[in-house]
Amino acid sequence: MTLSLSVSGMSCGHCASAIRDEVLPLRGVEDVEVDVPAGRVTVTGTAEESAVHAAIAEAGYEVVS
């Protein structure tokens, strides 16, 4: 499964690292790609979408629909 999310509030490499650090440890996550200029986070694996949303919020960012 590939989950592509719009995320607000990202502006730099530190933002990308913070999100990767929270999302990568989740069970079922195989890879995390963060495109800061586009405001996109793409997660590959079998993790629950709600867990990914919570991890992104824990990093201090918001998933937008």
TrEMBL record:
Q: Determine if Metal-binding is one of this entry's keywords.
A: yes
- What keywords are assigned to this protein? Metal-binding
The chain positions of domain HMA read: 1-64
Query: Which Pfam families does the entry mention?
Result: HMA (PF00403)
PROSITE patterns annotated for this entry?
HMA_1 (PS01047), HMA_2 (PS50846)
Q: Which residues cross the membrane?
A: none
Query: Record keywords: Zinc included?
Result: no
Q: What PANTHER family does the database record attribute to this sequence?
A: COPPER TRANSPORT PROTEIN ATOX1-RELATED, COPPER TRANSPORT PROTEIN ATX1
- Protein name listed in UniProt: Heavy-metal-associated domain-containing protein
The organism is Actinomadura fibrosa
